[in-house]
Design goal:
By secondary structure, the chain is α+β, with helices and mostly antiparallel strands. The protein contains 21 helices and 32 strands.
Amino acid sequence: MPRVTRLPARTRGALASLLAGITLAGATAAPAAPAPPDGPAGHGRPVVIRYTEYGVPHITARDWRGLGYGYGYASATDNLCVLADAYLTVRAERSRHLGPDAPADSGLGVAGDSLTSDLYFQLLKDSRTVDRLVSQPPPLGPEPEVRQLVDGYVRGYNRYVDETGTAGADGPACRGKTWVKPITALDVYRHFHAVATMSGAGTMMDGITAARPPASGTPATAAPVPSAKSPSSLEAAASGLSAAVHTARGDGELGSNALATGRRGTGGDARAVLLANPHFPWHGARRFWQSHLTIPGRLDVSGASLLGLPTVLIGHNRNLAWTHTVSTAATYGLYEVPLVPGDPTRYLVDGVPERMRAHRVTVRVRAADGTEDTVQRTLWETRYGPVISTGPGGFPLPWTAHSAHVLRDANAGNLRAVNSWLGLGRARDTDDVRRVLARTQGLPWVNTVAADRRGRALYADLQIVPHVSDDLAKRCSTPLGERVFAVSGVPVLDGGRGDCAWGSDPDAVEPGLLGPAKLPSLARDDYVVNANNSPWLTNPAAPLTDYPRVVGDKGTPRSLRTQEAVLTAERRLAGTDGLPGRGLTGSAAQRLLFRDRSRAAELAGADAVRLCRSFPGGLAPSSQGPVDVSAACPALEAWDGTFRQDSRGALLFARFMLKAEAVPGGPWRTPFDPADPLHTPRTLADDPQVQRAFGEAAAELRTAGIALDAPLGAHQYVVRDGERIPLHGGPHQAGVLNVVTPRWDPAAGATEVTTGTSFLQVTEFPERGAPRASTLLTYAQSADPSSPHHADQTRLYSRGTWVPERFTPAEILRSPHLRTVVLTAP
């Protein structure tokens, strides 16, 4: 904690004025009087951090620099090691401090090791891409308030490092490490850029850094992928690349549920309700951190952000709540460029040769004996972007004498995301949300779902999307691209034709992007919902269809989680879900999420019982030989189809659905019907591969020493501070909204969570008065095991307990755990 000092008279006066502004802002419905405009950094302005239950900081300052200062100091207090690791990554210094073979930071991209990560980020540094973006005026560059926030954030973070970063063995494990050091504003902006590009270039670091021209003498007729002349090979390649695209998008790693209701969809005295339920990693740079940020009269927003982004990404203010879900829109595209015969580093566009740009990248590396060495590698770039040797998901796209594949990332020039999020924090209603997103055009790979006090709900997929119309894809797709685009929406275009460049719209902030007018949105006064499928069934009463394939598909199967989300909304509005009344309320949203119902169990639970009882002698086939499943049948028959801690049969069913999903053609007898998308496909098929999937799941549990009828919580848990904490919830594949994705240990079962329900917030707007919100950060505020807030909310999550949020000054002051820290910003 900061050293205790007596504040000078001038600062005490400023603090009294600041606190008076807070009280005024909380005591009246009208906005507080505007605070004085920002002056130069310094003047000893106080920053007040009030901590309430579970270590949630309420940070108040008189200007943007002061707010950033408090945010930087408080976030470093809770998560110094995670943040320092992120800055180590974007500085391209992992190999120098940790060794080239050390794991990369998976929160900022996909790389096989630290050397690969460093080569990628050093290339970015050498290109000065982020430097140029920072120097741009808005909308391409940071808005003035963002610059001031970042300046303050850097100072606050550095103060904490200066005070504690070289402390002794107690506290964070990274203290005293040479790579824990002060940061610069450029480090922070590089982090922003890494977050923006993590769905595109960030997934292909291995392919970018490993691309090499073919050796001399390679036959010029060799093709990098099967051509249209070999249909079977082409179909196999297209299927493999499409699957790799879905893997790289983070299926099972990143996801979310969002449900917003307007005045016709709410109950009680509520005008609107929003349920925010992102599913993000529990470890590393993509952890959320909760805070409440206030500048009296200018900003009052509460929620959570990814570590190192000094504003609220998912949250609410007095009149608006919003959240995000990971979108299906493609954020990048590939080009196949024809090469000049005999010269694989030159390519042809409209028959005219262009030379690739060679970038000689140097990375400092720690050798095995502790000495320092350097590694150099030449990386290659075209007018579209970098040459790659593997594509999304590691799919091989070899550079041959005939052609090469290159990447174009639509987020390569995006440093606008924090502009967008700060704008959302200051928005007054859902109309403002649309205006903010259209003006800033910075959201990198997410949809937005919002609700406001006026009783309106909004879905908006106003984000960064390549300007690839269906017509352009039809005219310019390679043979491989024709098939991949239809399935995944990712374009693979002919880079040898100038007329195959991405298009532009007059309302887009930069060339090559779809303008906001061409992206889908839907405003309703009943409800909107998204659970990571395309915009099509945001509300079945008003299907969205007017958008290009690059944004998402239409008339295709919805995930079981999407089905469950839409049906949950429909049943609540109809009052047919077993809860009292009709319409969504804050308390109903909490109960519905933690019911842990499985849509897969509704569709296939009875079929699973019949399948279990059908095996002769109770022996199911598996790769380990016949496995006795007779003990599972009574448990599955008695199971209520939920993933509560005491649910018996749920764990076996979850493992079964994971394996059944991989059955070629799917596990269902009744196929998908676009006229009945919420109830098809259904009914397990009488298929030997489905039977084998059941046996494999049972064998998997047996190998881990788990009884087939064991309660879920006994074998789905995390260990924190030596305590085993059982968890409810289930996998995406089972159609459970409260997603828990465990790390499966073949010898012990599900003993850790990789990703799943992370930051939860339910916000309810009455007609008058402050919003009513409840939150839960499932893995708690701090990644530091020595912190009292390392696992406290994990225990709450285990019990299904929510935290009533303290938003107004009066609510904050009533906290029995209130602790106040006053910082004097330099």
